[in-house]
Amino acid sequence: MDYLRQIELLARDVTEAAGDPTALREAVEALREQIRYQHFVGDGCVDDDRTMLHLGGAAIVTPEYDSYELGCARLGVEARPEGWALWYTWDDQARAHTMVTTALETTRGLLENWALGRDVHPAQPDRAQVASVVRGWTGPIVLSPSHTRAVGLPSR
């Protein structure tokens, strides 16, 4: 609801600025910034007290994968019917690691945005959402648009 209220206020700013081209441009830009991507749980728009976490990539693993049980063992987690979200990021010394989380909905939102080339990143997950952290990037991976550019890969 906070997000919807913010959009309503920005839309009013656009309406009020209609007579002044400079003010209108600024109001439209502020509104565009808020609605530039598909929002999802954990995108930081409402939870702005949580630190944003830059990801190199993400994936969702589920029992449909042939090696799901083996992958779970390698990640140090129990297999669960709904699967796990894997977030690929770095620690404070720039070492790659895989964060195994229950943030499936957030990860789906990330992947949908990344498929459209939108470089969005999630808020830091709650401690209760993190089941394991493993050194290195383990498992399947979809690279974030910014990491794709950083390593020099084509963007689609």
Q: What structural keywords apply?
A:
elongated, 156 residues, 17% strand, five-stranded antiparallel beta sheet, alpha+beta
Walk me through what this model shows.
- This protein is of the alpha+beta class and 156 residues long.
- 35% of the residues lie in helices and 17% in strands.
- The protein has helices spanning 2-16, 21-34, 68-75, 104-115, 145-150, and strands spanning 57-61, 84-90, 96-101, 130-135, 142-143.
- Helix 1 (2-16) packs antiparallel against helix 2.
- The chain starts with a helix and ends in a 6-residue tail after the last helix.
- The mean pLDDT is 88.
List the helices and strands and how they pair.
Layout: H1 2-16, H2 21-34, E1 57-61, H3 68-75, E2 84-90, E3 96-101, H4 104-115, E4 130-135, E5 142-143, H5 145-150
Antiparallel strand pairs: 1-2, 1-5, 2-3, 3-4
